[in-house]
Amino acid sequence: MSKRVSLLSLPLALAAWVALLGASVPAAAQENRAQDARGQLRLANLAAAFAPRHLADGRYTSAPSGYVRFCAENGADCRAAGPLMPAIRLDAEHKAELERVNRTVNEVVQPETDLDHYGETERWAYPDDGRGDCEDYVLEKRRRLINAGWPTSVLLITVVRDHEGDGHAVLTVITDKGDLILDNQEAEIHTWTDTGYRFVKRQSKEDPSQWVSLGETRVPPVVGTGR
To answer: Which end of the chain lies in a sparser environment, N or C, as judged by fewer CB atoms within 10 Å?
Structure first.
């Protein structure tokens, strides 16, 4: 009699075991996914921690069309000025000056797209009327720093893809503490690794009229579609 009961109970036991196993699989899968996510986060943190302090220049590439037009109208501002330096020493004086210029230009220039400002898709110009978009902020910051004695070799106009994937212009300042980014969309100055941007191209250190690639292969057709 006991044997018959055991045999009858066997399917029920198997069903219960299968149900238990099925319930544990999603939990195990979730744990595996959580572990993968934690691993990816650790890898991302390690990548940022060990990223080079300076962007590596690639091969020569084309300059943005708006910059080409700007140089045709402002030729002297597209030539090298000051000594050719690998980096500028970011002492207390230079740091304060950099922060002052970045803050002042971000405050005094009102954001306005080229389409609203000039009726054109892309136009690079100094924001002398107090209005401009990203590349105009960059040009003004660069102009003020050059007038303060900074060499052009450490002040490089740079094209990136921003967090939305759009073309955006920032000013890269090459210092002994790393490449710093002056950005009209950010109040603070960040290192290039902390921006979250994908870097497309920038001016050559040796010749501001020449541009070099920076790794991001998807070149935006327009720089500064927003502000």
So the answer is: N
